[in-house]
Amino acid sequence: MKSDLFASENLAQAAAAPGMTLQNAKSVKYTVNGEMLARQGSMVAFRGNLQFERKGQGIGGMLKRAVTGEGLALMSVRGQGEAWFAHQAGNCFIVDFEPGDSLTVNGRNVLCFDPTLSYEIKMLKGAGMTGGGLFNSLFTGTGKLALVCDGHPIVIPVTAQNPVYVDTDAVVGWSAHLETGLHRSQSVGSMIRGGSGEAVQLMLRGEGFVIVRPSEVTETAAAH
User: From CA 207, how far away is CA 164, in angstroms rounded?
Assistant: First the structure.
């Protein structure tokens, strides 16, 4: 049987070493030798002797979404084998943490990560302005974290002289040491969203970067 479908870049190759690699732009392959963690429902295929277990619904098993405070449930994958992860055909990126690195991430953009990474739920100061609060997940340690993003992300440098304001529905993550706050802007909300009422942006100041997705559509809205 012949087809471009069987091109070498589409074929799953034998694993060279444990851990995660990009299978392609839309999926991550993880060669498991022990344990790893992933968002529930993101596994699209596996082979080998693997067990999948839902993490408890306590704080340790949840990553908070921004704005709503809803939890993103995690699962653990244990054993020896290979698993492939993806989410709604979003673009996948692997972040390699070295000692001292830290990154604040919106829970909805987490795909999977090494168990050597630690994550902690944080709430921004002044987050009561948004009603449900603005939560995020702080990742530290050494290891790899796979992120998924609608479209091609925009990475914007942040400086002390030039703070950056981003839509809270569009933010993916930012340098953990940046100063953050919430900024109200009725005029911006009226112009950008095309309606009345005020908008709330996340303000970031300091030296670092912020990652933004080119979409304000939330998964809940997209499902309707």
Answer: 11
Rounded CA gap, 81 and 44, in Å? 14
Cβ atoms within 10 Å, residue 128: 12
DSSP conformational letter for 98: -
Which DSSP string do the residues of 151-218 spell out, in sequence order? Answer: SS-EEEEE-SSS-EEEETTTEEEEETTSEEEEEEEHHHHHHHHSSSS-EEEEEEESSEEEEE-S----
Burial 37-76 (b: 16+ CB within 10 A, else e): bbbeebbeebeeebeeeebeeeeebbbbbbbbbbbbbbbe
Identify which of 202, 218, 220 has the alpha carbon closest to the alpha carbon of residue 210. Answer: 202
Q: How long is the chain? A: 224
- DSSP H or E segment with residue 221: helix 219-223
CA distance linking residue 46 with residue 42, whole number of Å: 11
What pLDDT, in 10s, does the model give residues 116-126? 999 888 777 65
Nearest to 33, CA basis, from 74, 77, 97, 75: 77
Least confident piece of the model among 54-63, 160-169, 184-193: 184-193
Predicted model pTM: 0.84
Tokens of 152: 């091609």
How far, in Å, CA of 83 to CA of 45, rounded?
Answer: 6
CB atoms within 10 A of CB 20: 25
